[in-house]
C-alpha cells in the first residue's frame, strides 16, 4: 500500500496550531505555586532562616533565624529590627549600620534559606474549608486563598465574604468584601491577606 503524502505546508500549519493551543492552555491555567522572580522584594517574617554574608568579611557571616519580635542579632551592631522590611531593605539597613563605625562601603547579601510557615483559615461555603498555606516568597490575595480551598460552593454568597484580621495590638477588625467585584476585575478592591487572617464565606439566602 502506498503511504499518503503529507504536504509540507499542511504539516507546518498543524504544528503552529498545536503551539497556539498549548500556549492558550498555559495562559488559562496559571501555576499558583510558581515562586516570585525576585526574592529581594520578599518581606522577612518571624522564624525565617536567613544567611547573611558580608563581602570580604567572612568572620561576620551568619546563618540565623528572625526572632519572634522580628529582630536579628549581628556581631558589632547587636540587635537589628527587620519588621516589615524586604530582603533588599534589610541589606541596605545593615550596610548602613556597619558603614557608620566599622566598615568602609560594606556589601551585604542576604539569602532566605527557610521560609517560616504562614497560613490563613478559610471557612464556610467553600469546597475544601480549612488552613491555606502561603506559597514561599509570594503574597496571597483573598481570591487566591478561596481558590486554594477548592473555590466557592454552589450556595456561596460571594457578595458578603467576611475577612477577620488581628492587629499587632490584639484588636480584631472585620471587613466585608464583595468577591464578585474582584472576580470581575475591580482592581480597586484587590485584597491582600496576611498571616493569621480568617476568611468566612456565608451561604446565600434561598
Description:
- The chain is α+β, with helices and mostly antiparallel strands and 206 residues long.
- It is 23% helix and 27% strand.
- It has 4 helices and 12 strands; from the N terminus they run αββββαββββαββαββ.
- The strands form 4 sheets. A 5-stranded mixed β-sheet has the order 7-6-12-9-10, with helices on one face. Strands 2-1-5 form a 3-stranded antiparallel β-sheet, with helices on one face. Strands 3-4 form a two-stranded antiparallel ribbon.
- Strand 3 and strand 4 form a beta hairpin.
- The N terminus is likely disordered.
List keywords for this structure.
4 helices; five-stranded mixed β-sheet; alpha+beta; disordered N terminus; single chain; 206 residues; three-stranded antiparallel β-sheet
Order of helices and strands: HEEEEHEEEEHEEHEE
Q: How many β-strand stretches?
A: 12
- Estimate the strand proportion: 25-35%
Helix content: 10-25%
Largest sheet: 5 strands, mixed
What does the average pLDDT come to?
82
Summary of the model, kept short:
The protein is α+β, with helices and mostly antiparallel strands. It has helices at residues 8-28, 87-101, 142-148, 179-183; strands at residues 49-54, 62-65, 71-74, 78-81, 108-114, 119-124, 130-133, 140-141, 161-166, 172-177, 192-193, 198-201. It starts with 7 loop residues before the first helix and ends in a 5-residue tail after the last strand.
Amino acid at each position: 500500500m502506498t503511504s499518503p503524502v503529507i504536504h509540507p505546508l499542511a504539516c507546518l500549519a498543524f504544528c503552529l496550531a498545536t503551539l497556539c493551543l498549548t500556549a492558550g492552555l498555559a495562559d488559562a491555567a496559571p501555576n499558583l505555586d510558581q515562586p516570585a522572580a525576585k526574592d529581594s522584594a520578599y518581606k522577612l517574617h518571624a522564624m525565617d532562616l536567613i544567611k547573611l554574608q558580608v563581602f570580604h568579611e567572612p568572620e561576620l557571616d551568619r546563618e540565623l533565624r528572625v526572632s519572634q519580635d522580628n529582630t536579628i542579632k549581628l556581631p558589632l551592631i547587636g540587635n537589628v529590627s527587620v519588621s516589615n522590611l524586604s530582603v533588599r531593605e534589610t541589606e541596605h539597613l545593615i550596610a548602613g549600620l556597619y558603614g557608620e563605625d566599622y566598615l568602609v562601603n560594606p556589601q551585604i547579601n542576604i539569602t532566605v534559606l527557610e521560609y517560616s510557615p504562614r497560613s490563613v483559615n478559610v471557612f464556610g461555603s467553600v469546597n475544601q474549608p480549612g488552613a491555606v498555606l502561603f506559597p514561599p516568597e509570594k503574597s496571597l490575595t483573598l481570591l487566591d486563598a478561596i481558590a486554594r480551598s477548592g473555590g466557592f460552593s454552589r450556595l456561596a454568597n460571594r457578595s458578603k465574604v467576611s475577612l477577620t484580621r488581628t492587629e499587632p495590638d490584639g484588636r480584631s477588625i472585620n471587613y466585608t468584601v464583595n468577591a464578585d467585584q474582584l472576580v470581575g476585575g475591580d482592581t480597586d478592591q484587590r485584597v491582600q491577606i496576611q498571616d493569621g487572617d480568617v476568611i468566612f464565606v456565608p451561604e446565600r439566602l434561598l
